[in-house]
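[Meeting: bench + compute handoff]

Bench side (C.D.) handed over the final construct sequence. Compute side (W.E.) agreed to return the predicted structure before the next meeting so the bench team could plan truncations. Sequence as handed over:
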Amino acid sequence: MMNSAQYESLRVRLSGYLFCYAGLMLGLAVPLVYGWFQRSLLFIVWSAALSVALLIGAACWLARQLMPVTDGEAQRDELMRQVNELTIKLHQSQEWLGKAFFSNPVPLSLTHLETRTFIEVNESFERLSGYTRAELVASTPAVFNLGFSDEEAKLVYDRLRRDGTIRSYETTIRFKDGLPRAILGAAELFELAGRPCVLWSHQDITTRLQTETELRLSEERFATAFQSNPCAMSIVRLSDGVHLDVNEKWLREVQMKREDVMGRTGAELPVWREPADREKVYELLRTKGSIHGLELALHPSSVRDMTGLISAQIIVLNGERCVLFIVQDISERKRAEKALQDREERLRLTMQAAGLGAWEYDIAQACGIWTPEYAALFGLQPADFDGTNEMFLSLLHPDDRHIVNEAFQRGLAGDPHYAAEFRVILPDGSERWQSSLGRTLYDEQGQATRMIGVGQDITERKRAEAALRDREEHLRLAMQAGGLGTWEVNITEWRAYWTSEYAALFDLAVEDFDGQPETFFKLIHPDDVPVIKQAFTHALSGEPPRIVEYRRVMPDGSYRWHTSLGQLLFNETGKAKRVIGVGMDITERKLAETALRDREERLRLSLQAAGMGTWLFDVVQQRGEWSPEYEALYGLTPGTYDGTNEFFFARVHPDDAASVRRAFRRGLKGNPVYQIDFRYFHEDGSLRWQSNLGRMRYDAKGQAAHVIGVGLDVTERKQAEQALQASRTQLRQLAARLQNAREAERAEIARNIHDDLGQSMTGLKFLLKWLESQLTPEQIDARAKVGEMLEMSSAAIGQIRRVATSLRPGILDDFGLVAALEWQAQEFAQRTGVACRLSVKPKEAEIEALERDRATAFFRIFQEALTNVTRHAEAASVDAQLFRQDDALVLHIHDDGRGITVDELVNVRSLGLLGMRERAEMFNGSFTIAAGEPRGTLVTVRIPLRSQ
């Protein structure tokens, strides 16, 4: 037995030591809890193992301290046996820690802080570096070029000495294969056998960084194409029509600033001239999913109205269904088409009133075109003429064919004016006289390309010439030129005479003109006087009459265009005596020609600026025409296209040829709009994408006559769409693999903590219970300290259980999804005081076969939704329903809180919502969140029961 002095000494020593160990245990528990909240798995495992080792050591030390004060050899032997058992437990704990190091899937290495030599590495690090453990241990990272640069090393080791830990750092290391790898690492500083050491963890993030870079580049390319597109483009949310983004062209059209547009709907902006058009567009999108080439009247600004060619496609951005609108301004084209139709109609009526017919001859193609009026001069229909020069000559009187050939040759030689009078043989065998006037057009090299002109039947005039050579000559020329005014010049007297009609062209009376050439030339634009003189000289030389066009200066300073045609007449002796002629005002015709040229040039420049080319296909003749810009899309030089379908389809990708033919057949069956995207082969052999838009024209019988259209190269747009889709798919697959790996890792750690660490702590608690039973009632302080240690052990066991459950609830793996959801609902209600009710339909047995990954997704979404209720909803109750719908499992979570706002729904920083949506979409499921009825928030998750 101990005396009082020995007992007092033992009491003092035990009190001091026990208080020291109690402080040490609290110091270890704090890092353990801190590691859990920081989500550092390695830190949790290391701290837990160290806690077990120190607790066992404390128990052993306490047993040794008690041995000297106990009597009896048997009692000392029993204490020694307990010490040996505790020592065995200590070795088992160290063995478990070693297994956790070497079997860890994360590459780990242990180095000395000062010498930086490798003390130990695990198998994962060997696979990552390519070096074996034998090569690495006792060597420094610098030997294998695995270390940091000097600057990085200084920063890293200074931070380790200061903070003792580095949670995360990124660096680039070249391992044994020589390839650079992006590494995400962490480090912990601790003492091992009295020496400062560093535990390093490494993760290869090269692939992730490459994926992020490719995704960023893809998004940048899409943004660049979107903003720089010459067409007005906008992205609108389909559900409510709110504008999410617009490009600069769109802002210029509506004359608004970006901040005034974002977040507003089309109904609130000056976009639609008619509200019904907006509803029509959205109805088409809901039924068909896309719109191509819809022509609508828009109202983009207060300055002007606009006719737009609208194309739209439903796309998905950040999990939301949106609409990409593309609007091409065709207002100028529509106005040009209307003006052209008006001009052509006026010209047709004028020619019809004058009895004129028009013709055109393509010199390069050796092919002519006649209007119905001109064909009627030959007693034919337009379809009866095959366009060849041979057929045209066969219709002429054999004696007059040389006249036409000579006029044609003069045009080829450089004389742009074409004029000929000849006889034609009608189908009934009768002869008629015809006068043809035209102009030869030349290219930049001066080569004649085509001739255009008009023809008129002059049979009556020719008959009048035979009877009335002089006076009837005025009538003949007046009829030829329109019958508007005649003039005459007496060569002998060099004096001119005007009719009242011709004088009126100059805004004069007959008596106001004295007949002198100088007076006449004062009325003419100075630049046109040489033209008139030259024409008069040609007339005096006996050359055929020529039409002269000149400008007449009006009293107010303006000028008008005149055309004049004269003829030299001879007396009975054959001597030239006078020149007679006719003239008419052609100002309107000139203005029409100028306006038409301007319209055509603007249209050509617009198509060129947009990178478009035009084409035309004659359904009846089965012949096509391509503009030079359209031939350039195929890498062809102008004029290469031979007009055949075979030439076109030889360049269309075989897989797309059937779609192109179907789109064309739809036009033949009454659908006037022709629209198709197809792949084609460029002349350099590359495969490119083209967007083709056309319109079918029909004749009076409703039969398709010809198709006109435009083509645009959309290769870059198609490539960007394909790259973006592939990038999204790869990112989703990567996220799924990371999620599954994390769940597996959490389950493994939870199992290890629960099974190994929990059992060790339970054993320690039993030992402390036994130790407490061995103390005598007089050892009050010792019994109190042992009681405190028992309480700390119980608290540690509870903490271990909570950590393991948080990492991976065992009930999910052992009893299935329904039991796990019910447990989570009960735990949520107990922890927060918010009532949580869960109903399951059908019964649990019907969803027992649900895959583990899908069950985990449902559980994590339910868990995150309840977390959001706690943080944001301010709710009093939550109702959840789990039921089967067709081949899918559906989970409804409805709280009665304040409800989610629009800003919260579109907040891209809401990682919780993004995580829930990603978990559902991993299995081709859906996730929606919206305001509930009558209040609160409703979350709906739908996941197929099995892979489709």
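W.E. noted at the follow-up: The first helix runs from residue 4 to 37. C.D. will use this when planning the next construct.
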